Amino acid sequence: MNHFLETQNWRYATKKFDASKKISTEDLNTLKEAIRLSSSSYGLQPYKVIIVENPELRAQIQPAAWGQSQITDASHLLVFANQTSIGDTDIDTLIQNMSATRGIDKETLSGYQDFMKSNVNGLSEEAKAIWNSKQTYLALANLLNAAAELKIDVTPMEGFVPAKVNEILGLEALGLNASLLATVGYRHEEDATQYYKKVRKSNEELFITL
């Protein structure tokens, strides 16, 4: 079987982490780089990823995540927080970065810059927030795949109260909103879920070829 598919069959949403096992600095840096390299619309990356190592903060977050043990037992807790808005400043910053990174004159990017602004500024504030939130799912996918390559477990979570997590981490003041949680670490040998067969739709149910 293709190695990538093997790792996808290996991974699952871990229900019980081994709290005694911690991710190495090297592996954590690899996961961070995988997130950083993730695709996003226009390359804007309208989000931050908060790595919560502080056990007291994680204990505060746990009740806001339905009491799930992964929040405190996993090696690391990642909070994907989308920007609540986006506008000209974000686009100008991207263009500046693009110009510096690729060694090209900003003037040659002005058409693309104007195109992005016309599309983004045409959205309502609510639509901007939803669009930004969707981008975090792309980053999460890169985390899941990179972690599986390293045989590191990740449990993506939507089961939490964003407003409460925002309050605990002071995200609102930063113009951010918690959209996803991801607990990262190593499965506990007592987690029976790791032995379950993966349940997915068949190719015939899932794909339509036109």
TrEMBL record:
Q: Name one GO molecular function term.
A: oxidoreductase activity
Q: Which residues belong to any copy of the Nitroreductase domain?
A: 10-186
Per the record, the domain of life is Bacteria
Per its Swiss-Prot or TrEMBL entry, what cofactor is needed?
FMN
Pfam families per the record?
Nitroreductase
**InterPro entries named in the record:** NfsB-like, Nitroreductase, Nitroreductase-like
| Keyword vocabulary terms for this entry | Flavoprotein, FMN, NADP, Oxidoreductase
Q: Which SUPFAM superfamilies match?
A: FMN-dependent nitroreductase-like
Q: Which PANTHER family match?
A: NAD(P)H NITROREDUCTASE YDGI-RELATED (PTHR43673), NITROREDUCTASE (PTHR43673:SF2)
**According to its UniProt record, which protein family does this protein belong to?**
Belongs to the nitroreductase family.
Q: What is this protein called?
A: NAD(P)H-dependent oxidoreductase
- What species is given as this protein's source? Flavobacterium soyangense
* High-level lineage: Bacteria, Pseudomonadati, Bacteroidota, Flavobacteriia, Flavobacteriales
